[in-house]
């Protein structure tokens, strides 16, 4: 049984990943919790809580050592905190290897998997994959402005492979379950439905075609990465994997959601404007996950956002009632 520590365990992706790992029965799962209430919510799901925050290095490092953590997964979506956390984890990894060498015994490397995102590819309908350069010479497009910092962190993670077993996983735009990331769009449409409005304006691009993935398939992708990490790291395989299951029209997503909410008016997509998050949400991404399927053995099962909109729209409403 491998001890796994999830940074961001109470977040959108983190919750689904923790549940996937617990259900497998193959791992003991630890999760970071910022408050006592969140710690209790993890305990209810059979996850061992570690009270603290991603910036509280002392508590995190203590937990990593005390619980003999083998793999750390950072799905917190942080910026500076993830940079500094990686630096501290490298110190632990180096110390473990040094102690093992001094004792004359072999020891596995500490594992570290970082959650980035496909927005680093920038916005385009030209086909790309996880071997396509990002934010570098030869990159077809600059990253979405909201994620300009991520390629540098990805490179720092990969550069730590002499000390750690490392991997970078990039999910596309996530949907499913609580649909929290879609509230900025679906919330106004649902409110307009309830109010009987004749129209609603949404800060979305009518020509956008985002790459998409269900949160359960994100979780299974990270689960597959954890299982294959020690077999892949150090072999020369480029340890970056995009996770995407479809590319769909933002116009279709909004129209089909409105129909399922019962909205009779007009949904106007007026563009993302200067909102960096809206710009990122509308990033068009024509990617594929062939390498993740072949190398990690990942098998996505929830394919098609618009296709299942009747279920997804009801789920969004039920969470908020």
TrEMBL record:
Q: Which residues form the NAD-dependent epimerase/dehydratase domain?
A: 4-228
The superkingdom of the source organism is Eukaryota
Q: Which GO terms describe its cellular component?
A: cytoplasm
A GO molecular function held by the record: aldehyde dehydrogenase (NAD+) activity
Q: What is this protein called?
A: NAD-dependent epimerase/dehydratase domain-containing protein
